Amino acid sequence: MAVKIRLQRIGTKKKPFYRVVAIDERSRRNGSIIEQIGQYQPIVGEKQFNVDEEKMLKWLKLGAQPTVTILNLLKNSGIWQKFKAAK
Q1: Fold annotation for 3-86
Q2: pLDDT reading at 76 higher than 80
Q3: What is the mean pLDDT of residues 55-77?
Q4: Is the alpha carbon torsion for 16, 17, 21, 24 positive or negative?
């Protein structure tokens, strides 16, 4: 089972709000998740990206692959650099 870290949309029309989740890559966008890691609000004045850093690093160490959007958010927040330094 390949695990992806990706966004799951839960917001309403024209007001997106996302959960950052670990999910089987074969499941649908809003399918059953393995674990919720954080949340992301792109519409707020300053983009809010809140994740549980311990859970994120755990999943990355287990081999979960982040999507392009999640990878960019991780790089901007500094978590990706911590993961690379721990390797």
Answers
A1: S16 Ribosomal Protein; Chain: A; (3.30.1320)
A2: yes
A3: 94
A4: negative
Cα dist. 31→19, 37, 83 in Å?
A: 12, 15, 27
What local confidence, expressed as pLDDT, does residue 83 receive? 92
Helices (H), the chain: 53-61, 68-77, 79-86
Contact yes or no for 31/22 (Cβ under 8 A):
no
Distances (CA, A) of 29 to 9, 21, 42, 48, 74: 8, 10, 18, 21, 20
The whole-angstrom separation of Cα 7 and Cα 29 is: 8
Condensed to tens digits (0 to 9), the pLDDT of residues 16-29 reads: 999 999 999 888 77
Distance of alpha carbon 20 from alpha carbon 50, whole angstroms = 9
The Cα 48–Cα 58 span in angstroms is: 22
Average pLDDT over the chain, rounded to an integer: 90
